[in-house]
Amino acid sequence: MSAKSELRQIEHIALDGERLHTVFLPGAGTPLLLCNDFVANLEILDEFAGALGRPVLCFDLPGVGTSAEVTTMRRMPALARLLTGLLDHFGLSQPVDVMGIGWGGLLAQQFAHSHRDRVRRLVLAATASGQLMFPGRLASLVRLARPSALSRVAPDGEQARTVFGGRRNDECGEIASAMSRASAPTRRGYAAQIYALTGFSSLPWLHRLNVPTLVIAGDDDSIVPTVNARVMALLLPQARLEIVRGGGHWFVLERTDEVVRLLDEFLEAKVAISAADQNSTF
């Protein structure tokens, strides 16, 4: 465990009738709000969050990890309002950077759309635009269609590679190691994330989301095919597209050093992305 991890601040916070498990890791620079993937508890991202030199705020949605059971079913805009309360609790009144992974990328898009004044820069990893996305491999999606712990889906590197993609078993072993810390969501927590996704699509307003955005995708992602990232990068006014060669859906765990480098280059850049800088061609 890094010195940064040892200094982390763990709290259970009451927000609008819900009680969320949160972890705040110290660091220098603009804080990063990290929105996790579908029913993934924050412990899965321990190594990734610890590798970032900046302050990182992680949270579990209701019914996930050690957050309390869901009290109210919410659509994406209502979940985004919860995040404003989370930032207020930690005294983060200035715009923060926001990163969404997978399902969390949908929430990150909604947050940036609904609360543009709270977002400095946006990172979308292994994600899509919502229900109108290009679908992933059916066999992989079926494996994830049960409200069980991700540790059962990816108990070893070979299974992680089969379900999530990724070209190297040794790198996929890093996924399995992280997934060993996964806990099963409650049935209501699982249903709540499905409910939030139902009917959601950012396609109607992505072209108006005028925030510097880094879109990252793995070219061997079995859950969210790379074409989804290319579509988003084409629509977003200030987007840069980066492809992780040989990376699967959880490339943030497979290629942590590479992803951290990409994040640092983007988040620390002095000049915002312009349309001419886009690397988003098919």
Automatic annotation (TrEMBL):
Gene: phaD
A Pfam entry, by short name: Abhydrolase_1
InterPro entries: AB_hydrolase, AB_hydrolase_1, AB_hydrolase_fold
Gene3D superfamilies membership: alpha/beta hydrolase
Keyword Hydrolase assigned: yes
Leading EC class: hydrolase
The EC number(s) this enzyme carries: 3.1.1.-
UniProt keyword list: Hydrolase
SUPFAM superfamilies: alpha/beta-Hydrolases
PANTHER family in alphabetical order: AB HYDROLASE-1 DOMAIN-CONTAINING PROTEIN, HYDROLASE, ALPHA/BETA FOLD FAMILY PROTEIN
Descriptive protein name: Poly3-hydroxyalkanoic acid depolymerase protein
Domain AB hydrolase-1: 32-255
UniProt GO BP: glycerolipid catabolic process
Gene Ontology terms for molecular function: triacylglycerol lipase activity
